[in-house]
Known about the structure:
Blueprint: E1 4-7, H1 17-31, E2 36-40, H2 52-56, E3 59-61, E4 73-77, H3 85-89, E5 95-99, H4 104-107, E6 121-123, H5 126-135, E7 141-143, E8 160-165, H6 171-178, E9 186-189, H7 195-203, E10 205-210, H8 219-226, E11 230-235, E12 249-252, H9 256-268, H10 273-289, H11 292-304
Parallel strand pairs: 1-2, 1-4, 2-3, 4-5, 5-6, 6-7, 8-9, 8-10, 10-11, 11-12
Helix pairs in contact: 1-11, 8-10
Amino acid sequence: MARIVFGMIDNNTRPIGGVKVIYQAVAGLRRSGLDAYVGSAVDVPGWLAGSRTAEEAVILDMRQEHSIRPDDLYVATDAIGPHRMPLLLSRPERRVLFIQNHNALRSNNTVDFTTLRHIRCLTVSNYSRRVLLEREGFREAAVVSPGVDLTVFRPAPRKQHRIAYMPRKWRSAADQLRGHVRHTIDWLPIDGCSEAETAAILAESTIFLNLGRGEGLGLPPLEAMAAGCVVCGFAGQGTTDFASADNGFWSAEGDGAGCIQAINAAVAAFDDPERVAQLIQAGLATAQRYSLPVFEERMAAYFRTLL
């Protein structure tokens, strides 16, 4: 059986959603009976250590000469560097470009993506697919959205009334927003945490503030929904695939005043237990549609058509 090798950026220090998705994809493909690998020159990131995803994915050491075989299906990412371009371009029938964030095509200026428009793409949201086809000029783009591990992200029996948020997503915005929220409530940053630590904070928090911007999809708000949080904050680009008035309090990406209103509305909602219960149930249902088994099934189906 031909192997599937996902190229990986050599990062193992700070949490990056795209890295986790690649490990999830490889672990899921292997559980589906496909011979998949994370092609990397470093070990499993410390912030993923101990997770089922990290335990079941297998790393192919890209430091070894001839690590990629002629019949391997090579999956390059939007973080590809010039050193991997010859490998990608040399295998016209055995390659896929995995674009987890369409904005990377503009921010990753080490590679001219206009020379790759003829390569089949896999992306993570309907929004990203439209951008790739209509703005960037790619010929082919399929969608398989990442999944939330519902065995990891789930509500705790008891919660603390507080706002959890990820400063790394938009640090300056977090500081400004907090100063304009009229309600007195604790704020808890999720910064530099492992997956397990993040899941524990979300499980015990009542509200999650989404600060994501320029997202291909946006896993954190989905993970927060799975953990039983009322979600509020920015919904832009890929996040619009799933954000709705039923599952959160949302503002347009970059709309600071709207985001302040959304946060205040989320806090005020807790005066109405029935409304909170409806939001939580809608969030749980949304997370279920983006569950890890759904992701794994769709990812395996996609790659089986290419082997």
